[in-house]
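Supplementary Text 2. Reproducibility record for the structural model of the 155-residue chain.

All settings were left at their defaults, and a single model was retained for analysis rather than an ensemble. We include the record here because the model underlies the residue-level annotations in Supplementary Table 4.
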Amino acid sequence: LESCIDYDKGHGRIETRECIVSDNIDWLREAHPLWHTINSIIRINSTRDVLNGKTTKETRYYISSLKKTKPEKFLKSIREHWAIENSLHWVLDMSFNEDYSRIRKENAPHVMAIMRHIALNMLQRNKPKNQSVKGYRKICSWDDEALAQLIMKNK
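Retained model, structure tokens:
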């Protein structure tokens, strides 16, 4: 087992992440022969100390096809993945309530995701400086002139 510890301070908390990597997974391949590409298991032990004195602990597990990779690299990759999740998907959910979408049939979910991305890009590129994406989207839905201006700017 290899491990590393990372410390992060921000948003009113101190977070400690311990990344432990094991490439001793023959037992897993035997139990699940279809998972022959898995080469390592990663465990992240996360502790958050909030400035108000509250502490939370969480353990997350990941599987990877990478061989002989240092825990620091896994930790960085996992953090980058969640940065994307938090920046793009969070914005889509907050601006378009994407998590509440009931669109499920055939290729409609994929088409709507593309449409939301297009709308998000248009809104982000053209919104007033001190306006949220969600707020500007609402303005464009209430005001035909604002919507027309947004569309014309993106022709």
